[in-house]
Design brief:
It contains 9 helices and 14 strands. Helix 1 crosses helix 2, helix 1 packs parallel to helix 8 and helix 7 packs parallel to helix 8.
Length: 273
């Protein structure tokens, strides 16, 4: 079985310091949280950025400054900016970090009802537009799928040549409006993927560690982080992203799965080393 790629989603766009003190806002906080996740075993940092007061932003300059600070502390880490941004942002606003030509970024592959009146909109035309911009810059997209219908959307666009090889899926389970994070859901979604693809699983909230363990057992990869889950165990808040990554490393050891370095992750994903 290939080595385990751990992605750490250090901040997200929605959670706040009121939810967990360790959620980073400033450039320095982002870099420090990324570094602690990296030394714990994360080879990919999934990156949203914030203003110093915590307001989510897709500002290109803010991404550039944050990525530079992260690279100072962990030069070989893979940085994966989000093009999801926050609900209500325009497509071009969301795409700003791709102008920095990172190795990877996310590509959301369908719309989701996030609860109440919030709808995260990604039409087929939106996905096609994002894919064109991403591939023009030689970036590998992580294909974010919140359910089986999003996997089907990827495969339709792949057949048309809009989404290209290598297919690396990000399966996000447990989001309101998306698939839940049970073992049944994981197995169904995993078995729906093409055989030559790779995938990483992000379980939201209480689904984080059970899904991480399933992904480890079944040869997938894992995403954890304060964006997805604020707790190290029921009722106990995680003291930063490092604790969440360390828990995944413990699970990997339990199942005799080695952890991939950033360069080993690059080889698995077909990126330049």
């Amino acid at each position: 079985m290939e080595k385990l790629i751990i992605t750490c989603a250090i901040s997200g766009a929605e959670v706040t310091k009121e939810d967990n003190y360790f959620v980073p806002y400033t450039i320095k906080e982002m870099a420090v949280e990324a570094y602690f996740a990296y030394i714990a075993g994360a080879s990919i940092i999934h990156l949203h950025v914030r203003e110093d007061d915590g307001t989510p932003t897709q500002d290109k300059t803010r991404f550039e400054e944050t990525m530079k600070e992260i690279k100072k502390l962990c030069p070989d880490v893979i940085i994966q900016p989000s093009t999801g941004g926050a609900v209500g942002m325009s497509n071009d606003e969301r795409l700003q970090p791709t102008e920095l030509s990172p190795e990877m970024c996310t590509l959301d592959c369908g719309s989701v009802n996030f609860g109440g009146s919030e709808v995260f909109i990604n039409t087929e035309d939106d996905i096609t537009y994002f894919a064109k911009k991403i591939y023009e810059k030689g970036i590998l997209p992580e294909l974010e799928c919140f359910g089986k219908m999003h996997v089907d959307q990827v495969m339709r666009l792949h057949k048309k040549g809009i989404i290209k090889e290598h297919l690396h899926f990000g399966l996000v389970l447990g989001v309101p409006g998306g698939m839940t994070g049970t073992k049944r859901d994981f197995i169904f979604l995993k078995d729906s993927l093409p055989k030559n693809s790779t995938y990483s699983v992000a379980g939201i909230g209480r689904f984080e560690f059970p899904l991480a363990e399933l992904a480890i057992i079944h040869g997938g990869h894992v995403r954890v982080g304060l964006e997805d889950n604020l707790f190290i165990e029921k009722g106990v808040k995680a003291k930063g992203n490092r604790a969440l990554v360390e828990r995944v490393v413990e699970l990997a050891k339990k199942h005799n799965r080695e952890i991939a370095t950033p360069n080993e992750a690059r080889k698995i994903l077909g990126l330049k080393v």
